[in-house]
């Protein structure tokens, strides 16, 4: 037996996931329970995202996978290969060319279009989980719209650190109703969640939850009037492509304290360098590219 | 069971279902948008689009309610053979199929619970025609506003008022499908 069913999963499983996706789209931000399957990869490697992608893909799709913005890390490469083999889809590293993008912890810098679907890998879908460990209680809190605890948490941030210290997985409120965990994307990416032309699907494999944001859904990051939400990033430009508007990774370059800042979105950075943009460390660029390949 | 119940399924199950789901998802994510849904050839009176929805979404885990003229022997056999879905009354249904009048009253269907609003029925409404005009739709999935020819608006407004509980609708005609989730706000124009 060398053939897989289209996109690996059996049809009954895909129907179950598809029904969950439709209910997720009908109630934006609500976490729909689903019977997550064992996948040929460990929990924490994107089993939720992979199952949502498997239920969503069609043979005509062009599929892109990013892991913290990068197309060339182990997780991204293996998930891309998985669907090349099991669904026979074309793959790409270019954001603009992809019809389905599976992502771990980033939203691409290139704005998404109406024809695209963004699938998030989610480790802990419940935004209240670290505040209240009991599922029965958090479910009640969502049903009663009782989100005071989350505001207390953000307030404690301010009282201890002088500012809201939550920097990733920053909680959002969807269409004024459900508080949702946007997955551990940096809060820099939070504004891109709202009014996005693409369909956004979230899959948590171990926690067995699917949720969704239809296009143009209003998504607001929680904050206070006197401590408004701020999308923050390293105060620096990309050392390879010079971009001042992209989210940056800090990379240690030697054991002398040397470091550079580079775009976390590798496709965005490469696109800018190909278009002739140059950062301060650009002479190192070819070496960097080689080392990462 | 007549032999014709065995025909009219997807020619290539996994691929046809994947394409049908993408059309259904695109419709549900963008209320009011009319998508094309093909691949199924169900017996009358079921439309091709509704047939494809059933083949894509229904299986032995999803009780189906056939309302009015859709509760016909040929269609019962077709659904049973192709999906294995149990046929039930409105109050137990996860999916219900029929024309608008036959599906009434809407309060017979499950709208979910406050803990589990996803445990709500999906109604597939067979329409004589489907066009992007008529009632004004706003809400998640819609950039500014959309228009869709609905059988009426009051029932959909009552449904949306229950959010996050409520029913979700697919509207089908021939090989066209549009959707109206509970999150959509419906107004007369």
Question: What's the gist of this structure?
Answer:
Chain B: InterPro entries: PhnH-like_sp, Phosphonate_metab_PhnH. The complex is a heterodimer of chains A (293) and B (189). Chain A has 293 residues and is α/β, with parallel strands linked by helices.
SSE blueprint and pairings:
The complex is a heterodimer of chains A (293) and B (189).
Chain A: H1 11-26, E1 32-33, H2 47-56, E2 62-67, H3 74-86, E3 90-91, E4 100-104, E5 117-121, H4 135-143, H5 148-161, E6 172-174, E7 178-180, H6 190-193, E8 199-204, E9 209-213, E10 219-221, E11 248-252, E12 259-263, H7 266-274, H8 285-292
Parallel strand pairs in A: 2-3, 2-4, 4-5, 5-8
Antiparallel strand pairs in A: 1-9, 6-7, 6-10, 8-9, 11-12
Helix pairs in contact in A: 1-2
Chain B: H1 13-29, E1 35-36, H2 48-57, E2 64-66, H3 73-83, E3 95-99, H4 100-103, E4 122-126, E5 135-138, E6 146-148, H5 154-161, E7 168-173, E8 176-180, E9 185-187
Parallel strand pairs in B: 2-3, 3-4, 4-7
Antiparallel strand pairs in B: 1-8, 5-6, 5-9, 7-8
Helix pairs in contact in B: 1-2
